[in-house]
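Inputs:
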Amino acid sequence: MIGIAVVGYGYWGPNLVRNISEAAGAHLVSVCDLNVDRLAAVKSRYPAVTITDDFEEVLRDPRVDAIAIATPVFTHFKLAMQAMMAGKHVFVEKPMASTTEEASRMVEEATRRRLVLAVDHTFVHTGAVRKMRELVENGLGDMYYYDSVRVNLGLFQHDVSVIWDLAVHDLSILDHVVQERPVAVSATGMSHVLGEPENIAYLTLFFESKLIAHIHVNWLAPVKVRRTLIGGSNKMVVYDDLEPSEKIKVYDKGITLNPNSQAYGEKVHQMMVGYRSGDMWAPKLDMTEALKRELDQFVECIEQNSRPITDGHAGLRVVRILEAASRSLAQRGRIIELEEARRIA
Amino acid sequence: MIGIAVVGYGYWGPNLVRNISEAAGAHLVSVCDLNVDRLAAVKSRYPAVTITDDFEEVLRDPRVDAIAIATPVFTHFKLAMQAMMAGKHVFVEKPMASTTEEASRMVEEATRRRLVLAVDHTFVHTGAVRKMRELVENGLGDMYYYDSVRVNLGLFQHDVSVIWDLAVHDLSILDHVVQERPVAVSATGMSHVLGEPENIAYLTLFFESKLIAHIHVNWLAPVKVRRTLIGGSNKMVVYDDLEPSEKIKVYDKGITLNPNSQAYGEKVHQMMVGYRSGDMWAPKLDMTEALKRELDQFVECIEQNSRPITDGHAGLRVVRILEAASRSLAQRGRIIELEEARRIA
Amino acid sequence: MIGIAVVGYGYWGPNLVRNISEAAGAHLVSVCDLNVDRLAAVKSRYPAVTITDDFEEVLRDPRVDAIAIATPVFTHFKLAMQAMMAGKHVFVEKPMASTTEEASRMVEEATRRRLVLAVDHTFVHTGAVRKMRELVENGLGDMYYYDSVRVNLGLFQHDVSVIWDLAVHDLSILDHVVQERPVAVSATGMSHVLGEPENIAYLTLFFESKLIAHIHVNWLAPVKVRRTLIGGSNKMVVYDDLEPSEKIKVYDKGITLNPNSQAYGEKVHQMMVGYRSGDMWAPKLDMTEALKRELDQFVECIEQNSRPITDGHAGLRVVRILEAASRSLAQRGRIIELEEARRIA
Amino acid sequence: MIGIAVVGYGYWGPNLVRNISEAAGAHLVSVCDLNVDRLAAVKSRYPAVTITDDFEEVLRDPRVDAIAIATPVFTHFKLAMQAMMAGKHVFVEKPMASTTEEASRMVEEATRRRLVLAVDHTFVHTGAVRKMRELVENGLGDMYYYDSVRVNLGLFQHDVSVIWDLAVHDLSILDHVVQERPVAVSATGMSHVLGEPENIAYLTLFFESKLIAHIHVNWLAPVKVRRTLIGGSNKMVVYDDLEPSEKIKVYDKGITLNPNSQAYGEKVHQMMVGYRSGDMWAPKLDMTEALKRELDQFVECIEQNSRPITDGHAGLRVVRILEAASRSLAQRGRIIELEEARRIA
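Outputs:
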């Protein structure tokens, strides 16, 4: 049994606590938060769990093998480093850190100490995203584009822009679904509240191939949209996370090209690009709660000394793009090469 | 009665011919096309109309007061200039020309000769877009963003990119609905067919105010989407052109700001940004066919020597943005100032 | 070439005229209507076609092999009988007659004279309904239910109830898709306009098997709905005619039964009925215009002396149910056996 | 503080327990269930609450002022009667009893002992249904129809038909929203599992006015639908309970009648029935959890000796219709007068 402590019992912490308390191979040892009321809530629901407002106490507790960190982003680096230095495995909320520099050091620390460092890219562990990866690997053909819209009204953050809050989901999904890595990013956006970070943003990611990815995030939309279009040379996918059951729809649609066609005048085009349209298909999805699957995997990795799917490297890749996108955003879409971003970081 | 000739009887021409033949103040004199089969189709449906494959004949015909041009974009400039030089009023398909230079000269020619030059920005004349303008002028408050998605499968053009084919609609709507003019544009996109122009593109338009506009166009999408979100400080709008009747939905939603709040730590944010959510409302729309309304207005402008809503200046503003966007697209999103674009043009 | 005359150029007549004028094996000879303006409209659009307001003239015309009847329902019987007595094949709008008695005599007349009598059950010839029949025959398993909703605002008829106007579509589809024939009908409904027939109605059809069919029709609904659910023991179908492309969705869902289970108390139920849920699938549909396909078949039947899919027998079966449903409606749902209906008719 | 015990901790009981434990004026005293595991679950979550498998103990407990009953339907009568005889107020799940006879005796007992008897018609206490009642009372005009569809896959019951399981919701909503009471019912349906009750059913309710109500319930549908259409002479409503926020849409649509029109032939109809179509409007709804509101009201009624909105009389009216509908169902739609039902009961 792996003993786990949870640090931070705010918005997401209760989900971690519930899943850990029900996990087969794990044991919820303690919960740490600075807020006394929150700790009381933990105690009334989980009487056997130790509560504390002192992180040092968690670090010293020999029953604790691993620490799950669900605190504000700017604290991730410090808490995770302290945890690892105390020999604890780490499960950290996304984004894993505020800067590429911090994320890199966390990855190095985990590597050096042979600890498991998992980043909570929850969506990657859903049935829908896992099915998308399967489709991308087998069926879609060459990747043409990945287009995601993630908009709703609220919840404005005052320390990070909408990119760090919402686009992080799309970037982590993209990182998992597509094996190719982006080489450059251009981002535009706007803040509509004086002194606050951008609440609307658009990211374009370029790749060495013809793949293009685009992410639209917005905290100020009248309707909630969670929709991704993926275009491949053989098939296309619509992923609508708000659909209760048919979240993934696969369309046997596309264009056909006839490069050998002799062509004169207007006829050229008609001979070269044809359209095909076949069946649509919504595969049945595994409906296991993503966080449960993810935590089970985290425990398994600790036991078997293996690497989780969404490990520190994945978290670092996402932070690197977030950072580059933020720089582009500040310069109205100036292209930022991700190599360049790497060098600077 | 204003005598009108139609040049070009391909995709859109038949709509012009039908509407002109039914218009109250106009008289359909002749139809000109290079294709004999198309001319035969006109004759069988409209036996009284003159058909010809010789544009010069149209120019010489004294019964013709105005010429409607529905030919490929690259021919607009030449045909329109000839028409105006022959003293004919002009109704030209969008985009009005291939370059800002051409469009400028067309506007100058019309001004010098005191001719009516109308550009067929059809959507501007729909009940939905007219209602949006009304809402923007009265009710939405300060404009925050304009976000449009116009995607579907096909029809690939081989001479112009998807921007000139699809984004032109959004730019003409935006030009009408919002009184402020954009000052810079950043565009990204990709071509997925070797040797062909971009089939997917994303445009961001910047304004002097905090307004930001974004347009997503795609010829290679598995589903058809025609959806625009408009965010204002008081209300927000969803315009879905595929809805059979409730195309415009107005949401009484938004954020409330409390700039005077004393704030420390985490509390800052919560005190500054609040959310409000009220009724949603779908106003009844005028369902008159847009092209009918537009042609009636064209005839009226000729009779009264007045300017149509979508005149050459509107057409020119749209072409200027298309041109700048194309330049940005070629440089992976490099910002193009529209003043700069103007100087170069 | 089969010469065809169209009688009645009101709501549906123009569609017949257009399709016949474009049909490969047919030749549009003449159009007959009592209204002079309508005839003028025909002439301007089809200058070569004979127009007349005298049905006798059509009957005498030796160029006319077949007559398509698109007049009000109460005239179908008389016109069709006259046409057949004059040796003409008949294509008649649905419902084919006002009573079972009339419909029976029409069928007898066609049989005796070896003429083709086709009833325009248009929906039967759509790609969607043809696909449904294919699925029912191969894949759905035992039929459990057929549930259809066909509601919208208007157009109120003053001579027939909403059953004769709207349910006729569902009954003709059901007649084609399901091979079993209903044995009894119960109908309820209401008129909300004094002195007018029912504008809302609900029909339940019983069969000898466990199949049950239900049809909801309404002229006074705020939204338009055209949706049919079909439940089978293996698969289930949703047919939504307002969907632009995915009109048919096949669900691999259902219940599993374990009749041998030993069961005590609450456990009984859980052991006997299980649920399964698999993929959803929207097959590509043939998008040929139904009326074109139907008229091509009519012409082919004349040439080859064969029977159309929607022949007089199909039309008669539908009228018999409409008549029985009307009697049940008048008695607040009293069950009407269709054998009984047959005897009375 | 009103002391409350909950009997039955199966599907719905946990919701009662949670809401009572959080209610302002109430105190959760004890939970009773025959299943030891369920009681253990209660204890671990609510350590201070008494648990017992002996209902007699609950009846004897002087701390218990009221008992909430969430056991199978066939036990409601016995448990509620025992509770009232012990002087306890009662909050009972719907349907309140298995027969009209039982429900009547429960109402009498509550009246005689001046105890509060509330029936858990949860939907009546939602923001959506409360808004519908408001609209029906003020704005819709004369009521024309109430049409509800409540279908999904599962959960088959083996002791009661789908009417008692699903239609009970619609009947309780209808009872609240419409002040007029139905006078007769016709029901049809079918069982598709040998030896099990009907899993699909259709109810038509008749009123003295021109109002007609229809309810479609089905345990074997491939998709989940929760949609009610209400037609009034002035406005019409669509209530879609699956919509996340705009559950109620009000349409300013309808027909206009001109009873004084002189009319001959076909013109009659056109002069008498016109159509009007105006704005659509989705009012903001109170999103308070219905059960919380309902339990707060129950507590208030006990304190103030007043009657809850969904009292025993409402519960009895619903059971009376369920019973009559079941009788009609067994006779393929034979009309059952509700007076007759009353006499027999």
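Remarks. The first helix of chain B runs from residue 13 to 22. The longest strand of chain B covers residues 220-232.
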